[in-house]
Amino acid sequence: MTNNIIQAQYDELISVASRFGKQTEATRQMTDRVRQSMQSLEQGGWEGSGSQAFFAEMNGEVLPAVQRMATALDRARTVTIQIHDLIKAAEEEASKPFHGSYQGETLPSQQEPPSPSPATSTEPEQTADSSGISPFSSSPTNAFVMNEASLDQYLGKSVGSGQCVALPQTYFGTGVIGQTKEWRPGASLMDYPSLRPGTVIATFDNPGPNGKYPNQSAGNHAAIFLGYERDKSGKITGIQVLDQWNGHPAQKRILPYISREEALQKRPKTGGKLLVNQPNDMYVVTNPSKRPVSSL
User: Helix 63-95 and helix 10-40: axis angle, to 10°?
Assistant: First the structure.
């Protein structure tokens, strides 16, 4: 009887993910240039029946197909990074019995290990790196997760009231995700570098079970997590989100991480309010009175 063996070249996986990301950006830039050129033609630069057929084909078929390709490339980048994180975490877990600190537990022989329940964590002991981000984690199970493939429909639109929380509340409905006063912080984004795209995240005033979403005119924010930004070494440097706020329709943007020391210095400059343009104060949104939802 043979065993299946999986070997991962971690540097190569990060390199592949980086190439997917570059192709995604190149495709989107090309699409933007084509749209700009078409706008000048549609505004009188080209008239006639031939132009109408061309514009209908481009707007109805070609550009949406290119956009789908860009979305698929970005998804491939995200999945490649998730594979990197998952296999690396599993390898660390499997190697724990051989670490010098191992105390010599008696291991069962010729038995299949019991399958963990969904609520049971089998993560290795986590040690944060210099950025404060733990290197081995899995996505929390008590999150509200939007269908990633449906998010582009919100781009450029002010959803609901136009406030940041209206985006997830419109998607799920307040009967599902609840009012912001019911929200509680789940996993910190500083501790979960394998979070699933589409997860609803928000700022909370503290990480404990009594942490609350600070419903104020400033210093609070909710967004939809899309993915991680990484440097060439694979270290997480920020997150990609889809968000909106009053006067700013839904858009994709990057929120860069800052060090804990810099965050401590920055908060007093905002009057003690939470950081809304960095993910340091952001957590996965949970609601103890509601059931978590994964919209696939």
Answer: 160
39/262 Cα distance (integer angstroms): 44
Per-state percent for the chain, helix, strand, coil, to nearest 5: 40, 15, 45
Among the residues of the chain, which ranges form H helices?
10-40, 49-57, 63-95, 166-172, 174-177, 260-269
**Do the Cβ atoms of 77 and 227 come closer than 8 Å?**
yes
The sign of the dihedral angle between the CA atoms of 259, 265, 269, 273 is: positive
Strand, helix or coil at 280? helix
Of 231, 233, 229, 209, residue with least CA distance to 279: 229
Would you say the pTM of this structure is higher than 0.90? no
pLDDT tens-place string over residues 5-45:
566 676 777 778 778 878 887 888 888 888 888 887 878 77
List of domains in the chain: 10-95 (1.10.287.1060), 148-286 (no CATH)
How far is residue 183 from each of residues 136, 174, 201, 205, 253, measured CA to CA in Å? 26, 11, 10, 11, 24
Provide the annotated active-site residues: 164, 221
